[in-house]
């Protein structure tokens, strides 16, 4: 069942080009049209005033990424909340806001309960982005987008995450179209980005030998810091979660601009700092944050794309991810952080597919 792979997680990381192209096929079949989200969507999407995303763990980070897309592409306000927090607070509900739940399993109890609670509070419409057909959460939702990642067995979510991002990107573009913010030329451009995504992800997978060498340096560390800015900040969060979860190395993620407000105090020469630094509009800011780290002796491990123009220097290691792919860049940068966590865990000899204390589907509170 594992074929040439040592673990399900490794297999699932490598299945991403296929999982993504299968999921993208669904988008291509419908185009960026309401029908992508089910029959009810045509009447629901045009009247929306906002989006509220509810999820847990890695799925929550997919939601955080989507917020950037939904606000910038569709011009719709979007807030993202951890399901287990939302369900216990007296939240404000605008019935014109679409509730979007994101769940690989479709059975996560907190996400399910958050959805029910949102309905009780008056939300009228709910979209489920889910990987398991006919599971509880899509059954309780009027709109559905199924990711086509296939069965995910490793406890740590990998291909489910990147395919969720495709569904969420499609939501952002579709909403943008409905609202007249995305014209035919922009739509063609977004379709093009989607078509190129599996190829770029394959390029990122080819970085595995270099990432393995980095992982060897990480495996003896107690702590690590992940930095990113803008739409790459959620990828830093995801990288830190993956590393914690399977290698048991304590890791935290910060938006790089926040360093000087506290976490910089942690940085010394025993703290590896991973930076997601592709060539986007915030790159120059990220570079100055990196200098702050270097000045305190922190060792930098930088994922920079071909256009970021970084060079290696003392204490600065660089791995080049593929040429900047545009809006979908966070999807491509999810791959190297998954592989880094995987190889660090291998080095430490942990049970990669079944990390201690964790379950694949969290159906308890
Ligand atoms: C982390 C991970 C978890 C899940 C979370 C939500 O690698 O897998 O954080 O993302 O338990 O699960 P789903 O998506 O099934 O609701």
From TrEMBL:
The lineage of its organism: Bacteria, Pseudomonadati, Pseudomonadota, Betaproteobacteria, Neisseriales. It is an enzyme of class 2 (transferase). The gene is glmS. GO terms for cellular component: cytosol. Homodimer. One of its GO terms (biological process) is fructose 6-phosphate metabolic process. It catalyses: D-fructose 6-phosphate + L-glutamine = D-glucosamine 6-phosphate + L-glutamate. Catalyzes the first step in hexosamine metabolism, converting fructose-6P into glucosamine-6P using glutamine as a nitrogen source. This is Glutamine--fructose-6-phosphate aminotransferase [isomerizing]. Keywords: Aminotransferase, Cytoplasm, Glutamine amidotransferase, Repeat, Transferase. It is found in: Cytoplasm. One of its GO terms (molecular function) is carbohydrate derivative binding. Residues 40-181, 214-355 form the SIS domain. Its EC number is 2.6.1.16. It comes from the Bacteria. The active site is at 360 (for fru-6p isomerization activity).
